[in-house]
Amino acid sequence: MPLQICILETDILRPELVDQYQGYGRMFEQLFAKQPIAATFSVFNVMNGDYPPADARYDAYLVTGSKADSFASDPWIETLKAYLLERYVAGDKLLGVCFGHQLLALLLGGKAERAPQGWGVGIHRYRLAEQPEWMSPVPEELTLLISHQDQVTRLPERATLLASSEFCPIAAYRIEDQVLCFQGHPEFIADYSRALLDIRQQHIGETAYRSGMDSLQHEHHGHLVGEWMMRFVSHGRMA
C-alpha cells in the first residue's frame, strides 16, 4: 500500500509565481513522486481554514514553509498549533520544513525567533550530526536550498539534532521516530529560488542577493532529503 501523506499548506504563493509553481503542496507532490517509496497526497491550505475530515487518517502530516512567522499569534497559526498538538498526542508522524520546522519546535517545547544572522538564501551547507538507519545514502555534507530569516534556537525536549552549520546551528532535528524537521527546502528548485531572490532583492540586501544567486549554480540534496522523509515515514510501518 502506498503511504498516505497529508500536506498542510501554510502559505499562498505570490501571484506572479502561482501559474508556474501552483503552491508548496504541489512542489512536495512533485518531489515525492520521484522517490522509490510510493505515496499518495492530500493537500489542505490551513491559511484558508482547510483541514482533513475528522475521520481521515494518514501515515504522516507535513507542515510546509510560509512567509508568516512561526512565533506569530495569527488565528490560523493558533488553530494549526492546536491541530498539530492533537496529532502529536495521538502518535501521528509529523514532518516540518522551514516554517513547519520552527512551528513544531515551538509547539513541542523548543524556541524559534528572528535570527540575528539575518536572511539565509540560496544553497546552504550543513554538517550531519547523526545518521539514523533511514538516512541513507549519506553525503559528506548536506546541501539544501534555503530562504529564511527565522531560526529554531532551542531544541524541543527529547529532540535529537541531525544537521547544523555556523549560520544555522539547529538546521534539522527529529523526535524519536515521530517528528522530523528541516530548516531547508527539499521541495525547492533553483528556478524557484532565483525567482524569490529577485522578488526579495531590495529587502534582503545586495550582498545576500548576490551570494544567494551565485550559490544556485551548485547541486543540492533536495531529492535525497525527500527520500529520507519518505523512509522516515515508512520506517517501522510494516513491523
From TrEMBL:
Protein keywords: Transferase
Pfam families recorded: GATase
Ranges where the Glutamine amidotransferase domain occurs: 87-190
Record-level Gene Ontology MF annotations: transferase activity
Superkingdom of origin organism: Bacteria
Keyword Transferase: yes
GO CC terms in record: cytosol
Protein name: Amidotransferase
